[in-house]
Amino acid sequence: MAEEVLGREAASGLVKQLRETFGSGKSRSLEWRESQLKSLLKFVTDCEQDIIDALLSDLSKPPFESVVHEDINATTVRFKRCPTLTIKERALIAMLKNSCKLALKELKRWMAPEKAKTSITTFPSSAEIVSEPFGVVLIISAWNYPFLLSLDPVVGAIAAGNAVVLKPSEVSPASSSLLAKLLTEYLDTSCVRVVEGAVAETTALLQQKWDKICYTGNGRVGRIVMEAAAKHLTPVLLELGGKSPVVVDSGINLQVATRRIIAGKWGCNNGQACISPDYIITTKDFAPKLVDSLKEELEKFYGKNPLESKDLSRIVNSNHFARLTKLLDDEKVSGKIIHGGEKNQADLKFAPTILLDVPRDSLIMSEEIFGPLLPIITVDKVEESFDIINSGTKPLAAYLFTSNEKLKKQFVLTVSAGGVVVNDTSIHLAVETLPFGGVGESGMGAYHGKFSFDAFSHKKAVFYRSFVGDAAIRYPPYTKGKLRLLKALIGGSIWGIIRALFGRS
Ligand code: NAD
């Protein structure tokens, strides 16, 4: 069911409706959660071609990337734009479907109360941690992976038993309208709704009281979301971005490293991805070898004229195209482009572009690039990169290519980032046993796999007592002896307890 433009009153009515359904307990049952997850899986399977077409329309996204990142069923999709797709590539991780399948497989276990230890102080007793749904949650998603970023949190919210409002990004209009039109045909609209819209609609939604808000996007709007949430003391999951660095040491398998950097940068939406490598730091000595390798592999992947490559996404819209152009027009980086730079405004195509030795106070180094430009900073010693990274805001991801074990340890210990990957880029996103989220300016909270279930659950502490073992020492009149025994019990030392019982301090 496609929703019409939403004002404050309509938003309030929508939340009221969902709150009533949530209050009825409908979304809490295992059966309801399972049926919704199965329907979500069915939606992705049934509508794969529609999804592919929407992504092509919004982002000119190569179908191969859609299959891998947005989890479309590769076998039935028309790969008319990717004739070279291999069977092996088709078998690559399909993240969204995997999230649904994992949740369906593990749901009973995730929902089961978790036993907790109790102490002698409260003997006899038992305790458990009960995961309870927050209630009615709002999910606001971003344009760059419009299906994955919308539906992956929805999987977590449903698995945890919440009622959900999803607000996809207006910047990917075809994907947003497909979600509004088709998703709600598959899901129970008394508990799950899709609201389309831009700033006005999102503002109307943010004026309501939610039990949790999950927002994916930039930090400026992240602050708006958090401010709105603070009014109701609503907890937030903020999935933001940042400048994710790649440190490249010498003595590595350069070709593999280069290919993995390219895959993470240009192979993910042409750099329009939150964990895309934002800039490289390498040594002055190693930079020429790295640059040669990048140029060589880029040509192998995207040909001599990358603007014509079918394997590169376009820039999402003319605003972002102008923003990226401005980064290159900054006079501080004039003469620094050593590869690429070609662009075509008419079809929003931007070639992979490498800049060498950019000054750290240039525009390109002061904001998240979120596009196909890759600046390289050079240092005398690779260890200097740690201070450079830590002097900026905390990134969503930090990457290191090295064969040096000591450097790996140092990097993991010293560099603060949402996630760290050694000898690859971006791939941690697909590891469902790892939490995915930022730290500091790159966000707060995390999801994926079981972490998604936890992100949308309150961990309720539950403690059970019977009527036996009622100890008089808790109650007045308070005496020194009771105090001694109580202290010993809290201290947990058996000898202390025995001494207290025999009146010894
Ligand atoms: P966007 O423009 O799609 O905006 C995100 C959402 O915010 C949209 O739903 C939009 O309607 C809403 N919005 C925009 N302005 C608003 C306002 N004034 N008030 C209320 N809501 C508003 O996406 P974007 O921000 O351009 O996304 C790119 C950023 O998101 C980058 O910084 C990127 O790193 C980050 N990102 C992070 C992740 C992650 O998982 N951590 C994933 C993708 C993108």
TrEMBL record:
- Give GO terms for biological process: aldehyde metabolic process; response to abscisic acid; response to water deprivation
The residues responsible for catalysis, as annotated, are E239, C274
Q: List, in alphabetical order, the Gene Ontology terms for molecular function in this entry.
A: aldehyde dehydrogenase (NAD+) activity
The parts of the chain that form a coiled coil are none
Q: Where are the transmembrane segments?
A: none
Give the CC-aspect GO terms: cytoplasm
Question: Out of the domains of life, which is the source?
Answer: Eukaryota
* Entry annotated with the keyword Oxidoreductase: yes
Keyword NAD among record annotations: yes
> Secretion signal: which residues?
none
Give the InterPro entries listed for this entry.
Answer: Ald_DH/histidinol_DH, Ald_DH_C, Ald_DH_CS_GLU, Ald_DH_N, Aldehyde_DH_dom, Aldehyde_DH_NAD(P)
Q: Where is the Aldehyde dehydrogenase domain?
A: 109-462
Keywords recorded for this protein, A-Z? NAD, Oxidoreductase
Reaction(s) catalysed by this chain's protein:
an aldehyde + NAD(+) + H2O = a carboxylate + NADH + 2 H(+)
Please give the name of this protein: Aldehyde dehydrogenase
Q: Which organism is it from?
A: Ficus carica
